[in-house]
Design a protein that fits this description.
Layout lengths: L13 H10 L3 E6 L4 E4 L1 H7 L3 H4 L13 H14 L3 E8 L5 E12 L5 E10 L1 H23 L3 E5 L5 E4 L1 H7 L3 H4 L4 H4 L1 H15 L4 E8 L9 E11 L5 E10 L1 H10 L7 H6 L3 E5 L5 E4 L1 H7 L17 H17 L3 E8 L5 E11 L9 E8 L1 H22 L3 E7 L4 E3 L2 H6 L10 H7 L2 H15 L7 E8 L6 E12 L5 E10 L1 H23 L3 E9 L5 E9 L2 H6 L10 H4 L6 H12 L3 E7 L4 E10 L6 E8 L1 H23 L3 E5 L5 E4 L1 H7 L17 H17 L3 E8 L5 E12 L5 E10 L1 H23 L3 E6 L4 E4 L1 H7 L12 H4 L2 E2 L12 H6 L6 E7 L5 E12 L6 E10 L1 H8 L2 H6 L3 H46 L4 H27 L8 E3 L1 H16 L3 E6 L7 E3 L1 H17 L5 E10 L14 E8 L6 H6 L17 H11 L3 E7 L3 E9 L22 E5 ...
Parallel strand pairs: 38-40, 44-45, 44-46, 46-47, 47-48
Antiparallel strand pairs: 1-2, 1-5, 3-4, 4-5, 6-7, 6-10, 8-9, 9-10, 11-12, 11-15, 13-14, 14-15, 16-17, 16-20, 18-19, 19-20, 21-22, 21-25, 23-24, 24-25, 26-27, 26-30, 28-29, 29-30, 31-32, 31-36, 33-34, 34-35, 35-36, 37-39, 40-41, 41-43, 42-43
Length: 1291
C-alpha cells in the first residue's frame, strides 16, 4: 500500500486514488490473469485484520468460511477459464472472528489485443440486506404459523363486513369451509350473528378497541344450538392511520358456560464455620448474586456485608476483568462444572489485588428455594506480580528478535546446525518449531533465482574468495507457498586452517518494496478499473456560493459509469448545474456539501430526493485543496432497502396487532428457547413490567411445585422439536396462582430448521375448579346411588347401558351386560311375565321410556345367575334436555317384590282366609310392631340424610351469601338450594309418617299447604284421575302441625285415588266456618278452618263408613294397606282439638273433612330469609361431630361468623384437647356419636368450665326426647339458623 503514495498521473492524481480507494465501503481487490490476488484496498485490510503479505496470492482464503471455500473456488475457476464476469455469495471472517455474508463481483481488464491483463473486483457486505429479507420472510411465516396454530379462531373483516382472511379454527367454529368465507359477508353466512357483528364493527371503525366481547347465536356448525364466543375486535390501520379492516380473535366458551351451570404451592448456612475460615467465603445464587459473605470478605473490602450481597460485590471488581469474570460464571453454570477464575478486587485501601476464586455448585434440596454455589477467594497478588515481571522480561528478548524488520541467521558448518529466528522462519514460510537445515534454505529459493543465490553463498564459504554474501531473491514459503522477496547479507568465519566453520548474516523482507515498484506502474490502470467497476455511484462536484458566502449551487465535474444507474440521471450531466439537471431539488442537499467544505469533515447521510422519487445513501468528503471547492460523493440508490424496511415495520406492526387481538397470552422464543416476545395479554395477566420475563425470567412465574416439570417438558421440546403442551400454575397479577394450558409449536424454514417457537398460555383455572367441583358432586351422587336399596340402571338415547349401581347386580345375581341397544334387552336380561311369556325387548320399561312413554312400570320374574327366578318391579323414566326437551337417556329403578308376590301367590293367602278373629289381633300387633320398626328405620335413615343435607345446604348457602357468583351460576346455586330445602321437608314428612316427629302446633296457611301438596298428589294419582283444588282468596290460619297435616292430606288423597280404580275426579278444598258450625261434631262454639278431600269413586256403605277410623281396618286387601291412614288422621284431629267428618254412600263417592281450630296469630312465611347473618362471633368454638363433611361445613359457617374453630371427631378427642390446655368459649356438639354422646360431653365440660355455652346438634328430629338442660338445633340448617341459635345460647 505504501507504493500508492508514490503513484502519480496528470489525469488521476495520487490523492484522488487514495481518497477514492479508502472511502469505498466495499472491499476492493485486484488479481492477476491466473486469479491470484495482488492488491486489496484499505477497507479490505481493516475489515479482515490481515496484512497485505498475508492476503496476496490465495492467502485471503483463510478468511473464507470453511463451508464456502469449495463453492467459491469452483465459481472463480469457471470465471477464469471462460473469461466471464465473476459473481459469488460467501461468508468472510471479520477481524473480530465474526462471519458476515458478502456478494463478490469482478470484471476482467483486457489489453489492446483482447487478452486479460488482470481482474478488478469488489466484495459487498449484504448481511443486513439478507437479514432484512429473512426477517420479513419469518414475519410472514410467523403470521401464517399463528393463523395455523392458534387455538382460537382468527379472521379479518373489511368495512362491508366481508371476510378478508380466516384461519381453519374460525372456519371450524362457523361450520363452513375457510375458502367459502372469503369475499362473503357475515350476514350471508351467519345471519344469527349479523346484528351483533355489525354493531361491533361500527364501534371499531369509530376507533374503539373491543376486548372480551361475547356473541351468542346459531351457526351451521351446530344448527339449532345457541353457542357463545368471547371475542376481541381491534382496528387495523393503514400507514396514514386510516382504519381499513378489523382483526378478530374468537374463542368458543359454550362448554365453559355449561360447566359453570353444572357447578360452578431455607436456606441454611454453617455461619460459625464460615466465619472461622481465614479466607474470603461467599454463598451465591445461580445468577451470581451473593446470599452470604463472611466477615473476612467484609474486612478485605472495607464495606458492610449488606453492600456485598446480591450483585453489590461487583463494585469491587476491576472494570477490565468484569466481562471475563461474568463469562466464566455463565460457562460454569452452563457446563455444570466448578467455577475457577482469577480477577482483581479493590481492597479497603482502594488498591486492586489479584484474587483466585473457586466455587462449587450445591444442588437444591426438596423444599429449598433453588441451587446455590459456595466458594472462596484467595489473595494471589504477590505471586501474580512476580510471574508478570518474569514474563515481561522474557518477552523483551523475543520482541527484539521476532518483531524487528531485520532478522539474523547462523549456519554452523562444523555441527551442521542452522539457527533461524521466528521472523526469518516467517519470511521463508516455515511456521512450525521443528529444527531446520541448510537444505530447507535451498528448497525455499525460487527456481529462477536458485543458481545465483547458491553461487553467492558458495563464494562466501570459499577460503580463497571469502566473498561478502549480498543477494536479493525470491523465496517460496515452504509451508504456505507464498512468494516473498528477501534481501540477505552475510560473511563466513574461518578457522586457523582456513576452513569455513560458520556463516553469520541478516535477512530483510523486501516484498512490499518490490510490490510498490510494481504498483507504481499499474496504479493508473487500477484506478481506472476501480473507478469504472465500482457499484456505487461516484461523482466530483464543484460548489458555488452566493454573496453571503452560502452554498447555492453545484455542478458535476466527474462521474463514473454507475452514476446513471444509481441516480437515474443521464451521463451528459458534466459541467451542468444541479438546478438544471434536477429542477425542484431542495437546496438542503447543496447546504450539506457546503458544510463538508466548511468543516473539512466527511458526512454520511440517507435522504429522499423527491423530484427523482428515490432514496439515497450518500458519503461526502472534501477533495483536493479547500480553495477548489470540490467535494467527492459516493452514493447508492437505497429505495428498495427503505421500502423493505418500511414493509418490515408494517409487517411487525400487523403481527403485534394480531397477536394482541388474541385473547390468550402469546409468546415467542428464539430457536434455543430464549423468550424475546410476549403480547399484551401476558403483561395484563402477570402484572410484570415490560421485558422483565424475557430470557429465562418467565420460569420465575411458575408455581414452585410446577417449575421442574415445566422446565423438563420445555427442554424436551427444544431437544426433539416436538410440540410443547403442559398444564401448570402461573402467578397472577393478584399474587395468586392460576392454572393455565401452555402450548407451543416450532416454526421451520425451507430447510426444515427451527427458526422460532410460537406459543400460547390459556387461562383454564375456572375450568379446573369447575371440573374439580363437578367430580366432587358426582362422587357424592355415586355414594347416594350406592346407598339406596333400589337397583338402578342408566342408558343413553339409543338404549346403550351406560351405568348402574351394585344393588341391581345383587338382584340379578350376575354381572351386568353392557347392552349396546334396546333390541339386546330380551337376551341380556331374560325375564318372564306372570303367565310365563318371555318379556320382549320393547316391553321393558326402559325401552318404553326411551320411546316417550311416561313412567312405565312392569313386574316380571327375572332369571338370576344361578337359574332361579325372582320377582322385580321395573319403573323407568326418560331423561330430557332442559332446553329442547329431547330425550337424551333414561333410568330404570328395580324394586325387589319377590316376597310380596310369593305371599300373594302361595298358600299363605288361603291360610289367612281361615284365620280366626284371634289372629286379627295378632296381625294388628305385628302391624304395630312393623310400624314401630319402620319408624325406627325411618328415623335412622332421616338422621343419615340430615347429615348428608347439612354440608350441602351449608355450602350452597355460603356460596349464595358471598355474592361472588355470576348471574347464571347464581341461578344454579339458588335452584340447588331450593332442591335441598325440599329434601329437608321430605325428611320431615318421612319422620311424621313414622311418628318420629313430635307434634308442634303452630299457625298454618292451609292455602299454601294445599297448593304445595297438590303437585305431589297429582303425580301419585296417575293419568286417569283429575285433581282439582278449590281455595278461597283469603283464609284464616289454622292451628296444626305442618308436617303431620301434610301427611294427613297425603293419606286422604291416596285413599281417594284407590277408591277410583276406573278413574275420576279428586277434589281438595278449604274453607272457614263461623262459630257454632261444628257443634254437631262435638266441637266448641268457635270459628274453625275446614280441609276437605272428595272423590267420585265407589263410596262406602254405612258399616264400612262407621269402622273406617278403626286402627288396622282396611278394605284394600292383604298387603295393600295398613289400615292406619284414617286412624292417624282422626288421632291428629283429636290432638289438635278438632274433628274428622266422613260423608259417603255406596256408588256416590266420599268426602272427608278435617276441622281445625283457628290459630291466634298469622301464619309465618315459608320463604327462607335471604339476609346474611352478621359476622358477630368472637372466641374459640369447640366443634365436635363424627361426620367429617358436616364438621367441615359447620366449621366454615362458624369461621364466616367470626369464630375461631377447633374441631374434634368424637367426645373423647374433645376431652383430650381440653386436657392439653384448650379453653373453649362455646361447645357445639353432635348428639349421637361413637363413645360419648353430645349431652354426656356437655355435662363433663360444664363440670370443668362452669357456665360454658352449649348447643347440641342432631340429625334426629325428635329433639324433645333429648336432655332439656341444653339448647338444641336440628340438622340440616343454614348459617342464619345457626347464628340465631348461637345468639340465644350466648346471651
Amino acid at each position: 500500500m505504501d507504493a500508492l503514495n508514490n503513484a502519480g498521473s496528470d489525469q488521476f492524481p495520487p490523492s484522488l486514488w487514495r481518497d477514492l480507494a479508502d472511502q469505498l465501503p466495499q472491499l476492493a481487490w485486484i488479481s492477476d490473469r491466473d486469479g491470484r490476488a495482488l492488491w486489496f484496498n484499505k477497507r479490505a485490510l481493516d475489515y479482515l485484520g490481515l496484512k497485505p503479505e498475508e492476503m496476496i496470492g490465495n492467502g485471503w482464503f483463510k478468511a473464507l468460511h470453511p463451508d464456502a471455500r469449495a463453492g467459491t473456488v469452483e465459481t472463480w475457476r469457471q470465471a477464469l477459464e471462460h473469461g466471464i464476469p465473476y459473481e459469488c455469495h460467501y461468508a468472510l471472517r471479520r477481524h473480530d472472528g465474526v462471519y458476515r455474508d458478502f456478494l463478490a463481483r469482478a470484471e476482467p481488464h483486457r489489453g489492446a489485443g483482447g487478452e486479460i491483463d488482470y481482474w478488478f473486483g469488489t466484495t459487498t457486505d449484504v448481511t443486513d440486506q439478507r437479514a432484512e429479507q429473512e426477517t420479513a420472510r419469518r414475519a410472514a411465516e410467523e403470521i401464517e404459523a399463528i393463523y395455523a396454530t392458534a387455538p382460537v379462531g382468527l379472521t379479518v373483516l373489511d368495512k362491508e363486513m366481508r371476510f378478508v382472511r380466516i384461519n381453519e379454527r374460525m372456519a371450524e367454529l362457523n361450520g363452513i369451509p375457510a375458502a367459502d368465507h372469503l369475499g362473503k359477508s357475515v350476514r350471508e353466512l351467519l345471519p344469527a350473528l349479523a346484528d351483533q357483528a355489525e354493531s361491533a364493527l361500527q364501534r371499531v371503525f369509530a376507533g374503539e378497541d373491543i376486548i372480551g366481547l361475547e356473541l351468542s347465536g346459531e351457526t351451521p356448525a351446530a344448527p339449532g344450538a345457541v353457542r357463545t364466543w368471547r371475542e376481541n375486535w381491534l382496528p387495523m390501520r393503514a400507514a396514514n392511520g386510516e382504519i381499513t379492516a378489523v382483526a378478530i380473535s374468537a374463542e368458543e366458551v359454550t362448554a365453559s358456560k355449561a360447566a359453570e351451570r353444572a357447578l360452578a404451592r431455607s436456606e441454611a448456612q454453617f455461619r460459625t464455620l464460615a466465619e472461622a475460615i481465614p479466607g474470603m467465603l461467599f454463598v451465591t445464587d445461580s445468577d451470581g448474586g451473593n446470599r452470604y459473605v463472611n466477615e473476612t470478605f467484609a474486612t478485605f473490602s472495607g464495606l458492610p456485608k449488606e453492600q456485598l450481597l446480591g450483585k453489590g460485590w461487583l463494585q469491587l471488581l476491576h472494570p477490565d476483568d468484569r466481562d471475563r469474570t461474568l463469562a466464566a460464571w455463565a460457562d460454569a453454570n452452563a457446563q455444570d462444572r466448578p467455577y475457577e477464575v482469577e480477577y482483581r478486587l479493590r481492597n479497603h485501601a482502594g488498591d486492586y489485588r489479584w484474587i483466585a476464586a473457586r466455587a462449587l455448585r450445591i444442588p437444591a434440596s426438596d423444599g429449598e428455594g433453588g441451587e446455590q454455589w459456595v466458594g472462596t477467594c484467595i489473595d494471589i497478588h504477590d505471586s501474580k506480580v512476580a510471574e508478570q515481571e518474569l514474563r515481561e522480561s522474557e518477552a523483551r528478548v523475543r520482541i527484539a528478535s521476532d518483531h524487528s524488520d531485520v532478522s539474523f541467521w547462523d549456519v554452523d558448518l562444523v555441527h551442521h546446525t542452522v539457527v533461524w529466528p521466528k521472523r526469518l522462519r516467517a519470511m521463508l514460510g516455515i511456521f512450525s518449531d521443528r529444527p531446520v537445515s541448510l537444505q530447507d534454505f535451498y528448497d525455499t529459493i525460487h527456481p529462477d533465482d536458485s543458481e545465483r543465490v547458491i553461487t553467492a553463498f558458495a563464494a562466501t564459504m570459499d577460503p580463497d574468495r571469502r566473498a561478502v554474501y549480498d543477494v536479493d531473491y525470491r523465496a517460496i514459503g515452504k509451508e504456505d507457498g507464498i512468494v516473498r522477496w528477501v534481501t540477505a547479507k552475510g560473511r563466513g568465519l574461518f578457522d586457523a586452517e582456513g576452513r569455513c566453520v560458520q556463516v553469520l548474516g541478516t535477512a530483510v523482507d523486501i516484498t512490499q518494496r518490490k510490490q510498490a515498484e510494481e504498483d507504481v506502474r499499474r496504479s493508473e490502470e487500477r484506478y481506472r478499473a476501480l473507478f469504472n467497476s465500482m457499484e456505487q455511484g461516484f461523482c466530483i462536484i464543484n460548489l458555488s456560493f452566493d454573496e453571503d458566502g452560502q452554498p447555492c449551487d453545484h455542478r458535476f465535474v466527474e462521474i463514473n459509469p454507475a452514476f446513471s444507474r444509481q441516480s437515474g440521471l443521464p451521463q451528459d450531466v458534466l459541467n451542468k448545474s444541479i438546478h438544471d439537471v434536477v429542477p425542484g431539488l431542495d437546496n438542503s442537499w447543496t447546504e450539506r456539501y457546503g458544510e463538508v467544505l466548511r468543516t473539512g469533515h466527511s458526512k454520511r447521510f440517507v435522504d429522499y430526493a423527491e423530484p427523482l422519487g428515490r432514496w439515497f445513501e450518500v458519503y461526502a468528503f472534501p477533495l483536493g485543496r479547500a480553495a477548489e471547492n470540490n467535494v467527492a460523493l459516493l452514493f447508492s440508490d437505497v429505495t428498495e432497502r427503505m421500502e423493505r424496511e418500511e414493509a418490515l415495520r408494517r409487517s411487525e406492526n400487523e403481527l403485534r396487532l394480531r397477536l394482541n387481538a388474541i385473547p390468550q397470552m402469546v409468546w415467542s422464543t428464539l430457536p434455543d428457547g430464549y423468550h424475546d416476545f410476549y403480547n399484551d395479554r401476558w403483561y395484563e395477566f402477570t402484572g410484570t413490567p415490560l421485558g422483565s420475563t424475557d430470557g429465562e425470567g418467565w420460569n420465575g412465574m411458575f408455581h414452585p411445585e410446577d417449575q421442574a416439570q415445566a422446565w423438563a417438558r420445555w427442554n424436551e421440546s427444544l431437544a426433539t422439536g416436538q410440540p410443547y403442551e403442559i398444564e401448570y400454575r402461573l402467578r397472577h397479577h393478584t399474587g395468586s396462582y392460576r392454572w393455565v394450558l401452555g402450548r407451543a409449536l416450532p416454526i421451520r424454514n425451507e430447510a426444515g430448521e427451527i427458526v422460532r417457537w410460537m406459543g400460547t398460555c390459556t387461562d383454564i383455572d375456572d375450568r379446573i375448579a369447575a371440573d374439580r367441583a363437578l367430580r366432587d358432586s358426582e362422587a357424592r351422587l355415586r355414594a347416594i346411588l350406592e346407598a339406596v336399596p333400589v337397583g338402578l340402571m342408566f342408558a343413553d338415547s339409543s338404549g346403550r347401558l351406560t351405568g348402574w349401581n351394585h344393588q341391581i347386580a345383587e338382584f340379578l345375581g350376575h354381572d351386568l351386560v353392557e347392552s349396546s341397544r334396546v333390541e339386546d334387552y330380551r337376551d341380556d336380561y331374560v325375564a318372564f311375565h306372570g303367565d310365563g311369556r318371555q318379556v320382549e325387548s320393547d316391553e321393558y320399561p326402559l325401552a318404553r321410556a326411551l320411546a316417550g312413554e311416561a313412567r312405565p312400570e312392569l313386574e316380571v320374574r327375572v332369571r338370576r345367575g344361578d337359574g332361579s327366578l325372582r320377582w322385580l318391579r321395573y319403573v323407568a323414566a326418560a331423561i330430557r334436555d332442559e332446553q329442547s326437551g329431547e330425550i337424551t337417556g333414561g333410568v330404570v329403578a328395580s324394586i325387589d317384590v319377590d316376597r310380596e308376590r310369593r305371599l300373594t301367590e302361595g298358600l299363605e293367602r288361603e291360610v289367612e282366609k281361615v284365620i280366626a278373629e284371634r289372629e286379627v289381633a295378632q296381625e294388628a300387633l305385628r302391624q304395630s310392631q312393623k310400624l314401630e320398626a319402620m319408624g325406627q328405620l325411618t328415623g335412622g335413615v332421616a338422621h343419615d340424610f340430615n347429615n348428608l343435607l347439612t354440608p350441602i345446604i351449608g355450602s350452597l348457602d355460603l356460596l349464595q351469601r358471598k355474592q361472588i357468583l355470576d348471574e347464571r351460576t347464581g341461578r344454579l346455586v339458588e335452584g340447588a338450594l331450593a332442591s335441598a330445602e325440599k329434601a329437608r321437608v321430605l325428611v320431615q314428612r318421612l319422620l311424621a309418617f313414622a311418628r318420629r316427629q313430635p307434634l308442634k302446633p303452630q299457625a298454618i296457611d292451609l292455602r299454601r299447604v294445599v297448593s304445595e301438596m297438590s303437585e305431589l298428589v297429582d303425580s301419585t294419582s296417575g293419568p286417569r284421575i283429575r285433581v282439582v283444588t278449590d281455595l278461597p282468596d283469603s283464609l284464616p290460619a289454622a292451628l296444626a302441625d305442618g308436617n303431620q297435616l301434610e301427611m294427613a292430606l297425603l293419606n286422604l288423597s291416596v285413599n281417594a285415588r284407590d277408591a277410583m280404580p276406573e278413574g275420576g275426579t279428586l277434589s281438595i278444598g278449604a274453607r272457614s266456618e263461623e262459630a257454632g258450625a261444628g257443634t254437631k261434631l262435638g266441637l266448641p262454639a268457635q270459628p274453625h278452618v275446614v280441609l276437605s278431600v272428595s272423590d267420585t269413586g265407589t263410596g262406602m256403605d254405612e258399616e264400612t263408613r262407621r269402622r273406617a277410623i278403626e286402627p288396622f281396618f282396611s278394605t284394600k286387601g292383604l298387603g295393600k294397606g295398613t289400615g292406619l291412614g284414617l286412624s292417624m288422621v282422626h288421632g291428629l284431629a283429636a290432638q289438635l282439638g278438632g274433628a274428622l267428618d266422613i260423608r259417603s254412600a255406596h256408588g256416590m263417592g266420599t268426602t272427608i273433612e278435617l276441622w281445625l281450630p283457628l290459630a291466634a296469630e298469622a301464619a309465618a312465611s315459608n320463604v327462607a330469609s335471604g339476609s346474611e347473618p352478621d359476622a358477630h362471633g368472637a372466641g374459640t368454638v369447640m366443634l365436635v361431630d363424627d361426620e367429617e363433611l358436616v364438621r367441615a361445613s359447620t366449621a366454615g359457617m362458624l369461621a364466616d361468623l367470626g369464630y375461631r374453630v377447633v374441631e374434634a371427631d368424637c367426645g373423647e378427642a374433645a376431652l383430650s384437647l381440653v386436657a392439653d390446655g384448650l379453653v373453649p368459649s362455646l361447645l357445639i356438639t353432635d348428639q349421637l356419636m361413637p363413645g360419648l354422646s353430645g349431652t354426656d360431653l356437655a355435662v363433663r365440660l360444664r363440670e370443668r368450665f362452669a357456665g360454658l355455652p352449649v348447643l347440641v346438634v342432631s340429625g334426629y328430629a325428635d329433639l324433645e326426647s333429648l336432655s332439656p338442660a341444653f339448647p338444641h338445633l336440628s340438622k340440616p340448617f343454614r348459617q342464619a339458623e345457626l347464628a340465631a341459635a348461637l345468639e340465644k345460647v350466648t346471651v
